[in-house]
Each structure stands twice: as C-alpha cells, then as structure tokens.
Amino acid sequence: MTLASSRDRRPPGPDAPVRLGIDPQTLETLEAARREYGDIVAFRGAGGRCAYFINDPAEIRRILVRQHERYRKGPGFERVKMLLGNGLIVSDGDAWRRSRTMIQPAFSRANVHRLIGLMKRCTLERERRWTEIAQEGGTINVTQETSDFALELILRAIFGPDYETHIVSGGDNPFAFLSQDPTRDLRVVLQLRELRELLLRIVDGRRGSEVNDGYDFLSVYMSARDKNGQAFTDEELLDELMNLIVAGYETSAGTLNWAWYLLAGNPDVHARLAREGAGKVPTADAVDEESLSQLPYTLAVLEETLRLYPPVWLFTRRAEADDALSGYDLPAGTDVYLSPYVLHRTGEYWREPDRFDPGRFGPDSGMKKGERPYFPFSLGPRRCLGEYFSFLEMKTHLGLLAQRFVMSRTGEPPGLDLGINLRTRRDIHLQPALTAPA
Q: What predicted TM-score, i.e. pTM, was given to this entire model?
C-alpha cells in the first residue's frame, strides 16, 4: 500500500519524499516532524512506501501491546540480523514465539537471583581498580570500565566455569572487541561469525561432560524444549547465544556509562544515592534479592537515565494487516517508527524533559508504572526478557560503588552516537575521589 492510495484518512506530514534510517539525520527529521505536524506523522519514503512516525503514548502502547500480532519487525533489523543471526531480537512469528517460550525460564526471578553473587564479584573488581586509580589521582574511562564490567558479567553468567577454561584460558578475551570498539560494521559481523566455532566447541564439551552443579544461562538454553519436545538446533542455539552476549552487555554498559556521567554533574542526586546504598547495602555481603529490592532511589536514578538515554532509541515495525489509529488509516505494509528518545523528551508528557530528575520515578512520583509515556525496553510480548537481570546488576553496581566514589567531570561533553544502540560519541572520563578509607 502506498501513501497515494490512503490519502483520505492519512495523518499530516511532508509532501516531499523523506529518507529514514538509523542515524542522526533521522532523529532530526522525526523531532522536526513532531514539532510541525504533531504526534502522528505520515512520510513518503523510497518507492512511495508509506511510513508513519508515532509519538502518541496510547497509540504506541496499543501497537506494541494490544495489536502486536498485526506488526512485524521493520526497517533496520536486517543490520541486526547480519550481526546476530536469527535470534530472539530479530525473529518473528512462530520462530519468535518458540524461542521466547524456551528461553523465558532462564530469566525467571528465582533463576536471576542465583547470579547475584556473580554481580557482586564483578562489581568488587571495579571497586578494586577504581580505588587504585583514585589513590593515584588518575581518571577513569567510565565508558570502557562499564563496558568491561557488563561484558565480563554476561559472559560469566552465560558460560559459568567455561568462562575460565574456554573464553579467557589463553589470557585474552576473544569477545573483548565488543567492549573496545563501538562500531557495528561488516568487520564486527565477521569477527562474531568466527567466534561461533568457539561457542560450538563449548556446547559440544557441555554435552559430553558431567552435569554442572552451578547455574548459568547456557545450561538452561541447552536443556530447553519446545512444546514438541525439541531442543534448539546448533544453529538456533548459537544465534540465541550471540543475541544474549551482545544485547545482554550493551544495555547495562550504556546505561551505567550515562548514569555515572549524570551523577557526576548532579552531586545532590549522587549524595542521596550514596546514602541509600550505605543504608541498605553497606557491604557486598549485604547484597541479596531482598536488599536490592529496597533501593527505590537507585532504581529511580536508573529509570531516569533510561528516560534520557534509552539504549534502543528507535524501534521499527511493519504492519501486516490494515489498522487504524486516532482516526487515521494505517494500511498493511506501512513502516512504523517509534522513538523512546523522542517520546521521553517531549514536553507535553514530561515537565522540563531535558533535566535529569530521578524524582519523576519511584513511589512518590505520582505516576503509575503502566501509564508512563516510557518504553526504554519496549512494551508488550516483545519487551526485553533480560530487563530484570539488567536492573539487578545495575543496582548492585551503583548501590555499592556510589557510596565509595564521588565522580567529577573532565573533558568535553560526550555527545550522542546514534547507531543501532544509543552510545556516547566520545568516551566519558571522570575523576574519582574516595569517600571512605580503602
């Protein structure tokens, strides 16, 4: 269906063709279109294809939650598929439903709680490193540090004892390029494909070994069965592992990177965060599922960070069937663009939207969770399965480290890198100061 065949009930928008992608120009286009035409805008793309940009919270929720079966993944996901294969992030239809059902038990709260000890261990390694840097009067490359923290954590959570015996046994981490180089181009695709041989060796080794008494994601993925009793094929399993490795670390790494930058510029927020951590998790020994649930301000800091800097700044869908929204027709074949970044900074929905204010969240915010114009992890059945895991690791990290270190900004503002994920254009370097004797 082209725009010309649905003009009677189409939203307002520019007459000239518009190119939309996953890049800074697209963000500028969407922001300008919202200011000029409102929260539902029609574009004419290449070949006359119809595209809608939707910034209305109710319609976003309807598309992602109540009418999700009418939509498939949209433009841009072919790049992700090249990188990660046909795993949970990019699959659709029956393949997606099967994978989701098989993987979901790995992310139950009870199972994620079994990884809290690992979260503490990785956090304490950052504390040791940052203490040495602070004592020497150095600066911390927070972008690199949070990337290394999150990557090590997800790899250990996936592979358990195989992390030591197969991933870093040679002294170098073959996945380190993911945290050291933010580009996601063809070269990275080739590097990831080369690592599939390593993953397959680990999987084959697991099949021939005794049962692992510990808990890791690989064990759950390998034991998962669909309704017909079928396991993942090797190809499916490798795709899902690649999805988990990349998505599982990038979200937490990016959010913590931005969180430390925001805290360094808002000392009152940092002080309140540190007080809460000192009261509920004064040491790593005090960190468990109960104490982590008693950090509402820490959670609010993370949620506000995600409001300002959602890891996926642009979601796309393609309508499989005719639909209608707010009095407009949405024909089958229409590409739909949804941007958490734009919605989260729209003044009609958020007062002073560019200001960092964790008070917008939490029990005293006055905003019910289900009614927020907010979707950093998407919504509905395709909402990120690892959301709880991510929040738990980030609360552990901030809960322990914010009470130990006060950060000061150095250098230029980091800027935005608007690729598949929202990153900082420049690494964030901060000056740490110890708040208590080492």
A: 0.94
